[in-house]
Amino acid sequence: MNVINIAHGAFIMLGAYTSYWLFVGPMHLDPFLSIPLAMAVLFVLAYLTQRLLVNQVVRAPLLTTFLLTFALSIFIANLAQVFWLSDIRSVTTSYSGSSFALGPITVPWIKFWTLVIAALLTLALQTFMTRTKLGRAIRATSMDIDAARLAGVDVARIYALTFGISGALAGAAGSLVSVSYAITPTMGDSFVVRAFVVAVLGGLGNVTGALVGGLVYGVIESFGALLGEGYKDVVALVVLLLVILFRPYGLVGKATA
Amino acid sequence: MHTARDWHHRFFAFLSGIAAASILTLVGAAAIAPPAAADDNVITFGAALSTTGRDSREGALTKEGYDFWKEYVNSQGGIKVGGKLYKVDIKYYDDGSDAATSAKLVERLITQDNVKFILAPYGSSATFAASAIAEKYQVPMVDPNGAAEAIFSRGFHYTFAILSPAKKYLQGILELSMTLKPRPTTVAVLAANDKFSLEVAEGIRDFVTKNGFTEVFYSEYPPDTKDVATLLTQVKAKNPDIILSSGHLQDSLLIMRAAKDQSVTSKIIGFSVGPSTPDFITSLGPDANGVMGGAQWTTTLNYIDPLFGNAERYAKLFELKYHHIPDYHNAESTAAPETFQFAMEKAGSLDPAKVRDALAALDVETFYGRIKFDSRGVNIYKPMAVEQIQNGTHMTVWPTDAANASAVYPLKAWGQR
To answer: Is the ipTM of this complex over 0.85?
Structure first.
């Protein structure tokens, strides 16, 4: 949609806090069960963000939305810090740390289910984008905003909806990372860079590509760490450079896309 | 083709983007740094602390320590310097856990806010950078949290660290290990590659080679790491008796979780920073039990203090205000401005050079321990302690004369803690 949302990391952080508060609250809701709630909360928040803020500058050069969402991410993180302090919080469930053996490999259950849910969400998004009228409208708007409008697409609504969906996915991501990582107001920053790298690896705008890109990035990073922990970013970013050089449309994308 | 209206729209959009960004940043800064009162009867100290970023938790603990001293001193009437009573105030900035920003803000405190006494930032890297600024403007800085000796190897005269140097941090755990039966022998060392953590690791490795231990694994990792699974897989393959890790709170939590994920077992696990903080126990729950940490200070140490009475009374007063038992970051951060206070009272003057000389000559016992500096400005006279988490509370297990519990050894299996 030609919008790079730097505040995506902040949305992930909010999703993680949503799961955290539901987990420590009176309902003691399991973080995996709070995924739909985190998605709903973040959908609304992202929808409103788009309608009230990003929509004002959506036709402006890319850098403007970049700047706006960057400011937004700083604002959200600081707001979170005012309300929730910089305390490091964690969701520790009864099954945290339990794992199963796959031959010589130890697979933590949490990581396994995280992967399964990520794959399911990707599949759902892919189906939505290709099989539904709304999904087609989103793709049409992203290809040619004027043509879409001429064809009767309510472009402003589609933009807000797209932002809302991306927010909902960030919410789900937040719930999923809340069981693996420490939850702090600034936790989103490191995810933004990685998400961006993963999106480029997979091919920008490519739904299944993002999943493949994520897996490839994770594997490269882990093997890079065998050279020494300090090298894992180097190895991963070198691969990114190679992909940009030789397959600028991503690992999964087609040259025409 | 772009119409004039189009361009106007774009220009407006660009401006509003910039305006929004700057307003948000200003709002953030204003919320963090309330303006300090300019008053003849007030001594204003300055500190650039990590309010945001990866060290924000440690930064918050530091600020609690500073603020506690400020409010206590003011409630007692203030500081008496040269026959005149002064109230105290502290001006804060947020360095975003970035050393270069910290140094810039310290320069701003000195040159624009006219602050003549600096309380150091959190952490060795930031203190390292800030100390160069203090030296440049000949403004004394007292450092509660920067333990790397690299800060003091440059012949500076204006920075004074009240805490024990980094190399001593985890040696206590090894000293304790030598008294345990069966004696653990193999050691795996993990270190974040920042100044402080590397010196802690150096201290461990020195001790290991001199005292009959065997180092079976050593690895450094970047301080902003998010995933240490590969690292812990490698540690597991070596099956060490002791795992010692020098890093900061977030790293310690990551390592603990990855160790559990990978079912890494050892007889002892210890961290330089982490176990002493309240967050460590709340985050890990029962898994935190048995973990050891090097501690600059614990509430059970028996020192007498001219201001607070003793360590126990300090802890009690502190808990009344902040609703948690002070950890060593809190304690050293109260002891730092207190050290300034004693030096000022002794100097009988607020001239930065005279206060510096008084700091250099200071020898006083506080609730935090003895404060006396060597020629570099390092407090080598104060011992370190070892804490172990037992049933969700911090117990001092080393040195024996300050211990209020004996060490639980070996570490219980995951799931049975």
So the answer is: no
Task: Determine whether A37 is exposed, middle or buried from the number of CB atoms within 10 Å of its CB (0-12, 13-18, 19+).
Answer: middle
For the whole model, what pTM was predicted?
0.78
Asked if B140 and B355 count as a contact pair (C-beta separation under 8 A), the reply is yes
SS3 B79: strand
Picking from A126, A151, A186, the residue at the C-terminal end of a domain is A186
- Of B16, B260, B263, nearest to A56 by CB-CB distance is B16
Q: Are B158 and B356 in contact (CB under 8 A)?
A: yes
- Smallest Cβ–Cβ distance between B60 and the set A85, A190, A232 belongs to A85
By residue range, what is the domain housing residue B219?
168-298+385-398
Spatial separation of the C-alpha atoms in residues B252 and B248, rounded to whole Å: 6
Contact check, Cβ <8 Å, A86/B284: no
Q: Comparing C-alpha atoms, which of A71, A51, A59, A52 is closest to residue A5?
A: A71
Alpha helices in B148-306 (DSSP H): 171-177, 195-210, 229-238, 249-261, 278-284
Q: Which helix (H) or strand (E) segment is B91 a member of?
A: strand B84-94
- The whole-angstrom distance between A248's CA and the closest CA on chain B is 27
Q: Which two tokens stand for residue B102?
A: 């910290």
Q: Please tell me whether residues A203 and A118 are part of one structural domain.
A: no
Q: What is the pLDDT of residues A216-248, one digit of tens each?
A: 888 888 888 888 777 887 888 888 889 889 988
Domain range for A48 is: 1-92+102-186
**A49 shares a domain with A62:** yes
Same domain flag for A237 and A251:
yes
| Chain B stretch 65-124, residues whose beta carbon is closer than 8 A to a beta carbon of chain A | none
